[in-house]
Write a structure and sequence with these properties.
mainly alpha, 102 residues, elongated
Length: 102
């Protein structure tokens, strides 16, 4: 994958520092990503923030799926039970898997 820097009117030669706490896992992902692609962390962070802000402005809330979902124990057990249940395939699934066009 190749990344190219682009000129962005919102990015000026004046910079400021922000402070944010992130999980150790996210930090490891950032470190690995920047190392693999030869990018500076501040460039990746700024681009990510700009993409995030722009997408939140342009897209409806329904377009965003949370990266983490917190469930109470009872709800978690219900989800696990549903995932482990052996459900019979529906007619629509069978048709899809056969490749029938209808």
């Amino acid at each position: 994958m190749t990344f190219h820097a682009t000129t962005n009117p919102s990015m000026t030669s004046t910079s400021t520092q922000v402070s944010a706490s992130i999980s150790a896992t996210t930090r490891e992902k950032l470190d690995r990503f920047t190392e693999e692609h030869g990018l500076k962390k501040n460039f990746v962070v700024e681009q990510a923030l700009l993409y995030f802000i722009e997408s939140r402005r342009d897209l409806p809330d329904e377009a965003f799926i949370p990266t983490r979902i917190v469930l109470e124990d009872e709800a978690f057990e219900h989800v696990v039970a549903r995932l482990e249940a052996k459900a019979a395939p529906t007619a629509a699934l069978r048709e899809l898997m056969r490749g029938d066009d209808g």
